[in-house]
Amino acid sequence: LHEQHKKIAAAETSARFQALQARIRPHFLFNSMNTIAALIRSQPAHAEHAIEDLAELFRLSLADTRALVSLREEMESVERYIHIEKLRLGSRLQVELDLGEVSLDTPIPPLSLQPLVENAVYHGIEPLPSGGRIRLSAHSVGKEVQISIENPRVQQDSARHHGNQIALSNIRERLQFAFGPSGRLVFTKETDRVIVSVTIPSGKP
User: Fold this and answer.
1) Residue 178 burial (10 A CB sphere; 0-12, 13-18, 19+)
2) Nearest 10 degrees: CA dihedral of 25, 63, 99, 124?
3) Cβ neighbour number for residue 138 with a 10 Å cutoff
4) Is residue 74 within 8 Å of 108, Cβ to Cβ?
5) What is the pTM of this model?
């Protein structure tokens, strides 16, 4: 009975984790498909590249949610997403990436940073006619890695704000599933910017 209880608990945890991952799938599908359709005739090479990026993002969203990936792999997902959005937003979207001396082998749950960059575009760039800049930076602090994503702070409607809180809660819960108390997410509003900080173990002995 004890072993059966452990198996049921493990199955419930896995199902919960899978559900959390499923709710974070990219919500930019509609815009992406429109962008690709517009590029097929005028810039077929760009359209083909965007399709490959989109397919890879969805492949990752269907992968084993219990397995961690390297920070290198997660950043590849971020860059694929940015490439798709740059095709749509052009010069309105400026992105700065600075990983400093952080090891790219650091383990992290798959698709945990990409949705945060997606939120930054949706909440901090799209509402601004002239667009803005997103900054993703990382640095090591002892046996932890802190990753921050910054975007301009703009007036948000209630629907966007509610969706943002759900996404943040989902990712926070995924980090806790993966790392326990060592996995944290903090959301901070400043006068002119919003910062989401993710803390994970560095993997160092």
Assistant:
1) buried
2) 0
3) 23
4) yes
5) 0.81
